[in-house]
Amino acid sequence: MRVLFVCLGNICRSPTAEGVFRRLLDERGLAHRVHVDSCGIGDWHVGKGPDARAREAAARRGVDLSALRARQLDDADFAAFDYLLAMDHDNLAAIESRRPADSRAHVGLFLEFAGMPGRAVPDPYYGGEAGFEEVLDLVEAASRGLLEAVEARLEARP
Predict the structure, then answer these.
(1) Is residue 35 helix, strand or coil?
(2) How would residue 158 be classed by pLDDT, with cut points 50, 70 and 90?
(3) 79 C-beta neighbours (distance < 10 Å), count
(4) The Phosphotyrosine protein phosphatase I domain covers which part of the protein (predicted)?
(5) Is 55 helix (H, G, I), strand (E, B) or coil?
(6) Which of 56, 77, 87, 95 could lock 13 by a disulfide, CB 3.0 to 4.6 Å apart?
(7) In sequence order, what are the residues at sequence separation of 6 or more whose Cβ sits closer than 8 angstroms to the Cβ of residue 149?
(8) What is the pTM of this model?
């Protein structure tokens, strides 16, 4: 199983989701069965680590983002991942515009897994510390729902 989180620049929301979801997988003993990654629509931050504010907020909740590095969405991701999860509607539109007709991946908004269909994870980049805490709250809720969906798919596999 392979999960890809997608935001605009891959330095705030999607690496936060990657880190939180990895932690949940570790806690459930599923890290060896699920590959997790994140990327951005744009290329502005390729090779850079997550925003310091995102790293600090995540660290306060026991999530280490320090080893992550930004990368850009690649056409090969559509074949490589089972889930491509967008943080907002613009990210989703960008993914859909590049999605090959034969892609079998689940493409959608991440917060669908928190029971919040149509809702976006807000971009905290231009705001203060509270924005990064809100992102973590939303990401943690959606990650729990995603974990349930992933576990169900893993159980269904022979």
Answers:
(1) strand
(2) low
(3) 11
(4) 1-149
(5) helix
(6) 87
(7) 113
(8) 0.97
